[in-house]
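About this split. The held-out portion is used to measure sequence recovery: a designer receives only the structure tokens and must propose an amino acid at every position. Recovery is the fraction of positions where the proposal matches the reference. Here is one held-out target exactly as it appears in the evaluation file.
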């Protein structure tokens, strides 16, 4: 019953809001000791038959009772579940004349629940599931399945069903809203390393490819997720969808709309179907007749298919159109191509081409052709795209929003290409996915939403979120509802005892992936493919960035292990797929490279422990191998070949490159290195602490050859806190030690001094460390931004003052960015001009102005211009200096864009000319809509490095 209640809660919060038709709650017994319901379906629709038997199986999973399924009304008695379209004779025979469904009947993909008492002498009660169309019926049936405890992911993620001794529904009459977005679906892409090997070798070997048995499971999942559209798999080696017997028929049976990707006009899979040796070049200038016939044959074949035709033309496989040299030539040729394609629709499908669903996907270079002045027919849906990394390149402007064909979005949760693939595990942050898709929704892009899910199997959560948003977008206009949706999703699977904890773990997993995706940790690129190299994390500064990230991932691993050990056996497979594998794999990929950094860097310093880190890196690689093998053996081999630890065999998936120099004779037995230094040779070092801060600095002691070295701290003031004060380094058991040094401020205030020294004696050597106390911030008001260690860190959300003008505002977007809440120029889809009275203001306290050599870094979410009329601009004003216009927009696939998407941050550096003693004021003025500010970093000494990761705010406690 707990599962029932949790799932019901999910329906109420995140599925369409309902309209109550009858305030009296009615109970319907599906299975009790006295009552066993049967299922009656409308014989006219094939999908209704599928749904009836599917619901019977779901009821069986829950109760152990499988209802009788029939299309003959005269054979049923007692309680009956009736499935069909609301217009059908079967459903109408159960509804009374007072039922008002006239307006509802015309509603897109909607369903009605109604319980009717004693509709006939033999039938005691009828539970009506009536759709306004076949998919509406399906959504109603599967909403009921989810409500009784059957997850949409019961098969694709092996989510178990909680058993119930009795199954009784409590249901008021209601009817659902229409979906927010008309066509909602997935693109199966880059299927070479998971979906196709699994289908061809494990699930559907009789076909040896992705065939109707596989698509039936995918289509069932789509309907359970209240989705309706498929762009079929199309990579080299995958047989074209229409060329596999049964594929088109199974789409028809499940009422799934078939489309095709940006590179596959007219439902053609060019990679598999265009035979250059026989047909010539895929060139409409030199080979028009063959290309035209190629399209014509598919249109004739698919004329009765429920389809959305992609129009236009690109190269055979995600490349530029052949035969043109300039954008102007390309736009002119596309104009003729679209005219010819629509003529085919008029000839074979409908004399009025405007009645044939069509999409023009504005992907990559096609945007340049569109901007050249290409006029796309008004009834065609303009499908805008992201930049392959989650940032939408363009949305409909004011005029485009008025098009009868509307707008749509093609978005990536998985990608093959430059600057680097991410095909392995789910890594697009839910907050980013929400922010971009809600921006699209508010720009009236509500016709088509397609998510590139790669192999599908690793992208379960993002798929769920995307479809939930497409079905009920208004709920997600509130950014905080994403985390609530995640909590509900995992609680519906793992129960209240584990669900919220798992959701928190998963959210933290996405936070870490936002900072750097696992596949990007090698700092390598592709197209062309480059070797991996040292990461940008700094092991010497900022508390050891490498170790901080390792510790964050280790914490996730510890949580994942602890939950795994407590979960009941029946939840283990689902947990491994949805949580454990991606968490563990991401952590291990990070460890592989971060430990390799330490091995290489420490090796150059002669540290013995370099070899230990090299071994840890290698162990991480081997463990990825092991857990991937474990994944493929889940369910007695059900998922064999679905998970590949090395998609496309890129260098990032190999063992990390580690080169440790050979030890030379005559080196010291031990060495010491203090944080913020890269060289261990100075005899004296300095550590600085800002009064009342919680700063802790580290000191590393390490052996450089096989020896035993004793060490101890001497002359340590009583206000210094050291986690260890004495010890022994031993090559066999303990070849290094990290000492953490912090300040007990209460003790220090008893005898405040600005400078003190202590020594570390190790073997026959001694290191003197000077501690300097910066008390300039002592009198500063609490919560003021201050300088600590020559840096100021400010999260955009924690402004000192804010001033908004009219309907335009800076709005906090929960969960987005390194700082976990960005400030966005809102509304993100409204054009507005520079408004100097609308700004964010930050007060920064500075001292020691004589030595300042400062630079200000602004970090924003790397969103792209909203329309062709926009940039990604803000006005930046420091003190009384003139306002500087800063534009975060990038050009094409520039190096700046590559670094932005690899790090999920856009960076701009501002030169500052003047500084005030004590209070300085930073103002950020709105210019373009949608700009999302993350955090700011004021580096007061240019000689110091800048961190890759975000640091804690430097704020007066």
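Reference sequence for scoring:
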């Amino acid at each position: 019953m707990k599962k029932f209640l949790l799932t019901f809660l999910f329906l109420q919060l995140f599925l369409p809001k309902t309209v109550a038709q009858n305030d009296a709650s009615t109970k319907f017994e599906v299975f009790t000791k006295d009552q066993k319901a049967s299922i009656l379906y409308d014989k006219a629709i094939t999908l209704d038959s599928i749904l009836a038997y599917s619901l019977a199986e779901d009821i069986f999973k829950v109760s152990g009772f499988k209802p009788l399924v029939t299309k003959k009304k005269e054979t049923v008695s007692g309680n009956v579940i009736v499935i069909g379209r609301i217009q059908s004779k079967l459903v109408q025979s159960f509804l009374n004349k007072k039922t008002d469904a006239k307006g509802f009947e015309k509603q897109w993909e909607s369903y009605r629940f109604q319980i009717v008492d004693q509709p006939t002498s033999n039938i005691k009660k009828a539970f009506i599931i009536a759709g306004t169309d076949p998919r509406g019926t399906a959504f109603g049936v599967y909403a009921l399945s989810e409500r009784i405890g059957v997850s949409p992911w019961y098969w694709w993620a092996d989510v178990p069903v909680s058993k119930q001794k009795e199954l009784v529904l409590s249901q008021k009459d209601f009817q659902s809203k229409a979906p927010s977005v008309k066509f909602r679906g997935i693109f199966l892409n880059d299927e070479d390393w998971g979906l196709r090997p699994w289908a061809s070798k494990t699930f559907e070997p009789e076909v040896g490819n992705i065939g109707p048995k596989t698509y039936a499971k995918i289509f069932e999942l789509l309907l359970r997720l209240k989705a309706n559209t498929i762009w079929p798999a199309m990579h080299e080696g995958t047989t074209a969808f229409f060329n596999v017997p049964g594929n088109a028929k199974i789409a028809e049976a499940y009422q799934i709309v078939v489309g095709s990707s940006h590179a596959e006009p007219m439902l053609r899979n060019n990679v598999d179907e265009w035979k250059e040796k026989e047909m010539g070049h895929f060139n409409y200038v030199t080979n028009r007749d063959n290309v035209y016939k190629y399209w014509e044959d598919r249109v004739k074949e698919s004329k009765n298919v429920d389809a959305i035709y992609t129009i236009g033309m690109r190269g055979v496989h995600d490349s530029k159109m052949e035969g043109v040299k300039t954008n102007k030539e390309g736009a002119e040729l596309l104009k003729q191509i679209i005219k010819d394609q629509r003529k085919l629709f008029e000839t074979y499908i409908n004399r009025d081409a405007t009645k044939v669903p069509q999409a023009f996907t504005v992907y990559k270079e096609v945007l340049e052709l569109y901007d050249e002045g290409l006029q796309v027919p008004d009834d065609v849906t303009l499908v805008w795209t992201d930049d392959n990394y989650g940032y939408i390149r363009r949305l409909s402007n004011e005029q485009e929003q008025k098009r009868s064909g509307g707008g749509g979005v093609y978005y990536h949760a998985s990608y093959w290409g430059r600057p680097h693939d991410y095909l392995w595990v789910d890594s697009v942050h839910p907050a980013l996915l929400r922010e971009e898709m809600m921006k699209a929704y508010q720009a009236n892009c509500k016709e088509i939403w397609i998510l590139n899910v790669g192999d599908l199997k690793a992208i379960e959560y993002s798929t769920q979120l995307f479809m939930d948003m497409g079905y009920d977008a208004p709920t997600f206009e509130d950014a905080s509802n994403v985390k609530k949706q995640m909590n509900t999703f995992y609680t519906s699977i793992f129960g209240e005892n584990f669900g919220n904890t798992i959701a928190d773990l998963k959210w933290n997993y996405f936070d870490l992936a936002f900072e750097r995706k696992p596949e990007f940790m090698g700092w390598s690129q592709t197209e062309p493919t480059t070797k991996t190299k040292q990461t940008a994390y700094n092991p010497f500064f900022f508390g050891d960035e490498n170790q901080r990230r390792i510790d964050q991932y280790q914490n996730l691993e510890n949580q994942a292990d602890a939950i795994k050990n407590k979960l009941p056996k029946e939840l283990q497979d689902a947990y491994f797929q949805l949580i454990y594998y991606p968490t563990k794999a991401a952590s291990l990929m990070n460890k592989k490279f971060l430990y390799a950094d330490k091995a290489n860097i420490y090796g150059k310093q002669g540290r013995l422990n370099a070899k230990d880190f090299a071994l840890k890196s290698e162990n991480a690689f081997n463990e990825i191998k092991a857990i991937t093998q474990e994944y493929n053996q889940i369910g007695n081999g059900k998922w064999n070949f679905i998970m590949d630890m090395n998609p496309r065999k890129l260098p990032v998936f190999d063992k990390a490159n580690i080169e440790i120099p050979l030890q030379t004779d005559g080196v010291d037995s031990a060495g010491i290195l203090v944080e913020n230094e890269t060289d261990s040779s100075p005899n004296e070092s300095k550590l600085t602490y800002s009064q009342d801060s919680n700063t802790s600095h580290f000191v590393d002691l390490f052996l450089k050859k096989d020896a035993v070295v004793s060490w101890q701290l001497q002359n340590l003031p009583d206000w210094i806190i050291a986690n260890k004060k004495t010890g022994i380094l031993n090559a066999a058991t303990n070849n290094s030690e990290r000492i953490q040094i912090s300040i007990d401020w209460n003790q220090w205030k008893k005898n405040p001094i600005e400078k003190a020294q202590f020594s570390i004696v190790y073997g026959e050597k001694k290191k003197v460390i000077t501690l300097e106390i910066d008390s300039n911030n002592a009198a500063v008001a609490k919560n003021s931004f201050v300088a600590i260690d020559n840096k100021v860190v400010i999260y955009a959300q924690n402004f000192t003052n804010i001033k908004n003008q009219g309907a335009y505002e800076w709005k906090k977007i929960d969960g987005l960015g390194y700082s976990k809440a960005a400030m966005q120029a809102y509304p993100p889809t409204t054009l507005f001009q520079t408004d100097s009275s609308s700004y964010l203001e930050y007060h920064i306290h500075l001292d020691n102005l004589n030595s300042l050599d400062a630079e200000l870094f602004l970090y924003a979410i790397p969103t792209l211009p909203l329309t062709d009329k926009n940039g990604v601009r803000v006005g930046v004003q420091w003190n009384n200096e003139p306002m500087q216009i800063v534009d975060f927009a990038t050009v094409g696939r520039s190096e700046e864009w590559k670094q932005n998407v690899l790090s999920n941050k856009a960076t701009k550096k501002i030169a500052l000319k003047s500084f005030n003693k004590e209070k300085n004021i930073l103002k950020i003025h709105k210019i373009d809509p949608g700009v999302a500010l993350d955090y700011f970093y004021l580096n007061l000494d240019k000689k110091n490095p800048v961190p890759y990761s975000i640091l804690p705010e430097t704020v007066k406690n």
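Annotator remark: The longest strand covers residues 765-774.
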